[in-house]
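Hi all, posting the design record for the shared folder.

TITLE: backbone redesign
STEP: 1 of 1
STRUCTURE INPUT:
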């Protein structure tokens, strides 16, 4: 028979004591057998490694629940909270039309096509029921499709860019870019981030980030890449207020662009995008839709407004050369004073000339000059105002 066990005096709750191959633990009232050979944690302190299996359910009160189940249950309720820095990530806004766009310039709202030596054709496409099933979200309506042909030249590239206003907003932060995509074949799609310090004055030189790439399949799937942007401390911004962080999607790239493109290489085919998101942090979260349809449109109209409605104006001129300023207000305050163009005019009576004038972030004046004394009339068939970066 073994001798008596002498336990430590004045134990603390959770204290461990081992004697004769048996482990005991003080529960605050007595020493209890802690099951020899079984790993356990004390009530306070201790370190656990490896995965933990929890039987709790997020739908049941006061249950310990895995983070994955919490995200799956709770995250869908936060799809419009403004986490994403991307505008028109669902490609629902197309004030310039649905395409096809083949030249350097803006395509669907906020998305800029840049091509060198390659050829590209960007257009809005309708998401099919098959696509929606692959995406897993019946909110998917339009994708942005790009059919491109890569050129073997070292300087060649095909890029889709969204400039994100104010370079300081994302400086020195880790961000995660996520998107749904498919392709006509096993094509690579590259992603990178650039810092542009604006124009005017003597701004610092742009900083090009190192790209990463993924390999797409013919089925829509969601992809995620994380990046850390450099600090802009010590950098000089331009005086024109157009500094930005550029999100770049690389479709094809010559040898000179291997690093920034994520080595996508020279390739040709079709790639379709939907649900683009950029958020602060190293973890991809549920897709942020960008708010209500009205909010999505307003985000884009800060940069570009297309008004296709007719406006008929007339005035009674006191003499030849008499003039009139008609105020026109934008639906939202624009990023900066825009460039305004009149789509066309018609039904002009006693009008020598008309043109946009006094453009500002809130609106502009339509300036008209009479040919002679007497009544005048003219109809404006819409206008476009661009404050895009």
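Okay, here is what came back for every position:
SEQUENCE:
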């Amino acid at each position: 028979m073994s001798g008596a066990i002498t336990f430590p005096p004045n134990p603390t709750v959770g204290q461990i004591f081992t004697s004769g191959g048996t482990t005991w633990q003080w529960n605050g009232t007595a020493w209890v057998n802690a099951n020899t050979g079984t790993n356990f944690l004390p009530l306070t302190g201790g370190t656990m490694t490896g995965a933990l299996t929890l039987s709790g359910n997020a739908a049941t009160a006061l249950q310990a629940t895995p983070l994955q189940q919490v995200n799956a249950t709770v995250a869908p309720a936060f799809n419009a909270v403004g986490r994403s820095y991307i505008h028109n990530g669902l490609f629902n806004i197309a004030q310039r039309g649905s395409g096809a766009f083949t030249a350097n310039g803006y395509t669907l709202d906020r998305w800029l096509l840049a091509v060198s030596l390659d050829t590209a054709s960007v257009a809005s496409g309708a998401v099919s029921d098959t696509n929606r099933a692959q995406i897993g979200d019946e909110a998917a309506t339009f994708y942005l499709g790009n059919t491109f042909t890569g050129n073997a030249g070292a300087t060649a590239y095909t890029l889709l860019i969204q400039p994100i206003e104010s370079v300081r907003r994302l400086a020195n932060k880790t961000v995660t870019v996520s998107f749904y995509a498919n392709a006509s074949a096993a094509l690579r799609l590259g992603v990178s981030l650039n810092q542009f310090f604006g124009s005017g004055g003597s701004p610092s030189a742009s900083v090009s980030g190192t790209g990463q790439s993924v390999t797409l399949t013919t089925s829509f799937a969601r992809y995620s890449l994380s990046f850390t942007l450099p600090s802009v401390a010590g950098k000089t911004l331009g005086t024109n207020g157009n500094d930005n962080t550029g999100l770049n999607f690389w479709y094809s790239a010559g040898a000179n662009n291997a690093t920034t493109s994520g080595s996508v290489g020279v390739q040709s085919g079709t790639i379709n995008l939907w649900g683009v998101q950029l958020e602060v942090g190293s973890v991809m979260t549920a897709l942020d839709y960008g708010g209500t349809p009205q909010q999505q449109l307003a985000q884009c109209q800060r940069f570009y407004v297309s008004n296709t409605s007719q406006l008929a104006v007339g005035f009674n001129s006191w003499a030849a050369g008499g003039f009139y300023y008609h105020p026109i207000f934008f639906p939202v305050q624009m990023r900066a004073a825009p460039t305004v163009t009149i789509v066309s005019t018609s039904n002009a009576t006693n009008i020598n000339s008309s043109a946009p004038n006094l453009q500002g972030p809130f609106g502009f004046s339509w300036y008209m000059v009479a040919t002679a004394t007497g009544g005048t009339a003219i109809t404006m068939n819409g206008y476009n105002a661009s404050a895009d970066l």
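COMMENT: The mean pLDDT is 92.
Let me know if anyone wants the other runs.
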